[in-house]
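Batch job 17 of 40 flagged for manual review because the log was empty.
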Amino acid sequence: MEEKLTDQEQARVDKLPKYEELGVDPFGKRYDWKDRIVDIRAAHGEKSAEELAENPVEVDVAGRLMAIRRMGKAAFVNLKDEHGAIQGWLGLDVLGEHDYAVFKLADLGDIVGLQGTLMKSRTGELTIRVTRYTHIAKCLKPLPEKFHGLTDTEDRYRKRYLDLIVNDDSRKIALLRPAIVKEVRHYCDDQGFVEVETPILSPIAGGAAARPFITHHNTLDRDFYLRIATELNLKKAMIGGIDRVYEIGRIFRNEGIDTRHNPEFTTIELYQAYGDLGSMKEWMEGLLKHLAQTILGTDQVPWGENVLDFSVPFRSVSMCDAVLEATGIDFRKEMSFEEAVELAKKHNVPLQQSWNSVGYIIQAFFDEFVEKTLIQPTFVHTYPIEVSPLTKKTEDPRFVDRFELFICGTEFANAYSELNNPFDQKERFEAQLAARGRGDEETEAMDLSFLDAMRYGMPPAGGIGLGIDRLCMMLCNVDNIREVLLFPTLRV
């Protein structure tokens, strides 16, 4: 069925033969522009009209027409490229009849090239006095109206290409995210970590507690899972002798969508042989302070209503101490599962049928009463063994050497002193399988190939996983994960 065009769209389509009559391809060809608008402004924005007249500056830019103000035989336009915008002045007597006739066909949104010399307008605006106008590509649909723009949130995410054209903040975030990822890589590389790539398709959904996406490989005639973590393969690489290893990559979890979660997201997982949880605290705190300075130029980072202070050491508190501070209940004391259940019921903490020991309830108390209160960067450490199947035990066998980093009530990172005892690891996997048998669908599968690798000797190590999307949310000062995903998952 042919799409019905609006009157404005039809008017633009009707111009296409007119371009061809003037010998111009309406959808253009290569254009070798040489100047970025941001560089032009930085180099010449403060010069006076007299300075620009005495020492002419030739420029050649390309971008999208965002405004056109016609005045008979002359016009002002506003051209926007990837990093900035600049005004152009076009006059019939300067351009000549052919180029001006091509310009007269222009509509908002057209992609064009402007060559000319810099000048200042009567109002003092840096302006290109255009001596050559090149039509590059026709925009066949009108852009959103200037003052109201593209304001519907769902439309902004669904038509991200249009959002990037008309919303400067969205384009700024889209460009800031890769700058953040680049700086994360730079920080890791400077510390001797090696970036690797591991498979996205896996025969086992391991390395995390999460529901996987399932697909089918026709040739092998078996189901595979989209990875829910990169952990186990990275540890195999470390066992093989890559002592400091990391991967920045996509993770897929068949779970809910909200302001903090998307079914596919990006993490960095990193492992340091001969390290421990302390090594990961140093890496994590150092990374955030490095990014604050290099990306934002400050250690006082605004996020929503809060200002995060990265100039001071991050707070570190055990999970049990955090729960004790919030509720007055000391879970470090020996207690039966039945006693813990009664405490949960008394404090209206939700319970799950698959739970059979105190550790699950400690985690539930933390989730209910503590997590949302952690605003400034806080390492919460010493977790119950039941919720940490890949982590070394502490001196108290009920707990393991693990931390999570929380900022503004949001989990940012998860780190372990990695378990390297294959016998202990097998027991943990078996406990997870038992929990699955009791109805817990988000438990670890047993990865026999990983157990086999561990038997060749795995060095003591620190390991960490950090959500890149949430990191970008903080550094971009936005409160919805969809703002930092170029094309987020949406309902069809």
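Reviewer: the log was empty due to a logging misconfiguration, but the result itself is present. The mean pLDDT is 94. Unflagging and moving on to job 18.
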